[in-house]
Amino acid sequence: MINIKSNSKKVTNGDIFIAIKGNNHDGHDYIEEAIENGASRIICEYGKYNIDTLIVKDTKEYLKNYIKENYCEKIKNIKFIGVTGTNGKTTTCYIIYQMLREFGIKSAYIGTIGFYIEEKIKDLDRTTPELIDLYDMFLECKENNVEYIVMEVSSHALELDRVYGIKYDYAVFTNLTEDHLIFHNNMENYLNAKLKLFDKIKENGYAIINIDDSYSQHFLAKNNNNITYGRKKSDYNIIKYKLKINFIQFKLKNNNKIYKTKINIPGKYNIYNFVAAISVLNKIGYSLKEILKITKNIELPKGRMQLIKYKNNSIIIDYAHTPDAVMNVLNSANKYKENKIYTIIGCGGERDRGKRKLMGKISSDLSDYAIFTNDNPRFEDEEDIMKDITSELNNNNYEVIYDRSMAIKKGISLLKRKDILFVLGKGHETYQIVKEKEYHFDDYEEVMKNIQK
C-alpha cells in the first residue's frame, strides 16, 4: 500500500498526510484529524504543526512527482490498456478484460462497475479513481501477478492528472458527444481533455480510434501507431450487420479478409465496442480466427443492455444517460422491434441542463410512449428537471412519474404482446440520491419485484 494519503480518514499509524486543495474541500482543514489517526509527517502549503512538517508551494504537484518517483518503477512491467470516450468505455473495457481472461492472461479491470482481478474486488466511487487510490490498485495488481490492466480513463481524470505517470500500451477512443459540460464548459475543452490520453502512449504502443466518429481526425496523431475501426474504410472495417433483440451478426474486413461472427450482445453501438476490443486483442498477438472463437463466452456488464424476459415481452435495463447513448439504444430497438417501445428515463440533478431537452425529445420521438422519472435529483427541484426534459416535445406520448419505483411499475403494466420496455439511465447503479440522502435503489431489483408479483 502507498504510504502517503490525501484522505485523513484513510491515514493509519506512520503514514504521510498531504493536504490537497480540491473543488469542494481543502485538505488543510483535516490535518489535525490526520495527526490524530497516526500521521507521522505532514506535507502542506501553510501552517505549523507539532509533528514533522514539509511546506511546499503546490501539494498537487508534489504528490504527482512523489507517486511517479516512488511507484512508477514498481509497476513498469504491467501493460496498460486505456479506453476513453463519452459512451462505450465500460462495455469496451469489460469485453477486453473478459477476452484476455479467456486466453489465460492474468488481468485486471478498473472502471465504472468496480475494481476486478479475476473477480470483483470492490466498488469504486468514480470511473477513474484518485491518483493515490489508483496506484494502490496498481500495486495490488503487481502483488497478484497481473499482466494487463484494462481501465476506463475519464475526461475528469485526464484533466485533473489522476493518471499521472502512466504510459499506455493501447489507448482506445470510442466516441465524443455532449456530456460533462458543467465541468469542461464547452466541447473544445472536453475534446482536449480526451486527447491527453493519446499523449500517454508508449513508443511501441497503439492508438485505436473509431473512424466513424466526427471527432476522430483529432485523435490521429502523427507520432502514434494509429489503428482505425468502423463502417468507413478502416483497418477493422465493419461491412455488414444484422440486429436482433438478443444478438448481433456482423462481418468484419481486415487485411483483405472477411470474417463473419455472431455475438450474444444486442445494439448496433455494441458492434463498435466489440470491434474496438477485437482490435486490441489482435494487436496483442491473437489472430482474428482465435478471437472470434471465444465471442460466445463474452457478456455485457451488469446494467448494459441487460435483458429480462417477461411473458412474451422484453425489458431492457441500460446505463444510457447521454443524448447520443439514448438515441443509439432506441434507434437499434426500432430496427428489431415487433410491436411497441416504452421508455422510462430521467436526468440527473445538478448536471448538464443542456442535454435534458435533447434526451426528452429523443425518448419521445423514438418511443411509442415515454415515462419521465427521477434519476438522482440531488439538491435540484425535481419539477425543474422535468420542465427541462419536456420543454421541446412535439408529441403528447408521455407522462411524468417522479417516483422511479412507481414509474417502473407503470411501465411494466403497459406491456401487452412482444413489446419492449427500456429502463434507462442508472444501469448498474444501486442508489438514488435525493438532497443529501443516498438510498438503495436498483432498477433490476425493481423490475424483478414487479414481474414476480
Can you give a write-up of this model?
The chain has 453 residues and is α/β, with parallel strands linked by helices. The protein is 31% helix and 26% strand. The chain is built from 14 helices and 23 strands. The chain has helices at residues 31-36, 59-71, 89-102, 131-143, 155-159, 181-184, 187-195, 268-284, 288-293, 323-336, 354-365, 382-389, 404-413, 443-452; strands at residues 4-5, 16-18, 41-44, 52-55, 79-84, 107-111, 114-117, 119-122, 148-152, 168-173, 201-210, 226-230, 236-243, 248-254, 257-263, 306-310, 313-318, 341-345, 369-372, 398-400, 420-424, 431-434, 437-440. An 11-stranded mixed beta sheet has the order 8-7-6-9-5-10-11-12-13-14-15, sandwiched between helices. A 6-stranded mixed beta sheet has the order 16-17-21-18-19-20, sandwiched between helices. Helix 3 (89-102) packs across helix 8 (268-284), helix 10 runs parallel beside helix 11 and helix 13 (404-413) crosses helix 14. The longest helix has 17 residues, at 268-284. The radius of gyration is 23 Å and the shape is globular. The model has no long low-confidence stretch (mean pLDDT 93).
Poorly predicted regions are: none
Rounded to the nearest angstrom, the radius of gyration is 23 Å
Side by side, the strands of the main sheet go 8-7-6-9-5-10-11-12-13-14-15
Q: What is the share of helical residues? A: 25-40%
Reported for the largest beta sheet, the result is:
11 strands, mixed
Distance between the termini: 48 Å
Mean pLDDT: 93
Hey, roughly how much beta strand do the residues contain? 25-35%
